[in-house]
Amino acid sequence: MAAIAVFPAVSSNEYFLTILAFVGIHVLICTGLNLLMGYAGQLCLGHAGFWGCGAYISGVLTAKFAWPPVLALFPSIFGTALVAFIVGFPILQLRGHYLSMATLGFGIVVYILFVQVDSLTGGPSGLVNVPSFSVAGFSVDTPLRNYYFIWGVTAVGLVGAMNLANSRVGRALKAIHTSEVAAETMGIKTFRYKLMIFVLSAVYAAVGGVLYVHYLNFVAPATFGFMASMLLVTMVAAGGIGTLWGPILGAMILTVLPEYLRAYEGLEVLLYGVILAAVMMFMPRGLASVLGGIPSYVQHLVRMK
Questions:
Q1: What pTM did the predictor assign?
Q2: What's the pLDDT score for residue 46?
């Protein structure tokens, strides 16, 4: 995080600031998804739907009804949380691939709603004229301000996730991930914890959506389709599912990598796929597990000498 804080002093290039701002948004969303997948063991293939709910609720309230962005933040969070609760209550009683298919269906339904309710969402063309975020008259309307604002919110989300992971709730979630039957026998209300973390992960995505829509001042349904959900899951898995640093590494690499691959015009998709396949084949526990083993490996070499 120290490197993120001092980066603008090293380079004020707006292109790099924009890319890193998107990294921050992805890190925040993936952190919530990691709590659901990595700690509670519940796979969600429609998480981009929650991201879109946060973005569209805030975007519609500010662009169509002239709400101040800071006030629209609260309906975005509570509205998305309510959707997650209503959806999660029935589908979290499913397990395995049945749960995966149910969350996939949710994502598709939400995407269709974004397209069809064009009187509010702007339809396939998207919603325009969304104002920049502002607090007490201070407008977050430049790349540098957005960069620090987004990463400031992301840092709060990361600290919250770390505290949760190391708390009694986090230990309960890990027990559920290991075995729901064993967790039940130890007195853990598994369904209650699964529903709670499902809603919390949706809240993380909703905040990411609010940051996204007020940064771009525009939002379109294509951003929150099936492939967006798959990308979020891939970021978590490639970074290291169930680790605190995994979402950060996965989101950073898979957001920045396509920008570098643009130089290989016509081959960027192929190269992207090959790199992802190599990561999952040779580092099945994610990049975080490899980097985490470097200090112990160095100590081993020192002892050998």
A1: 0.92
A2: 93
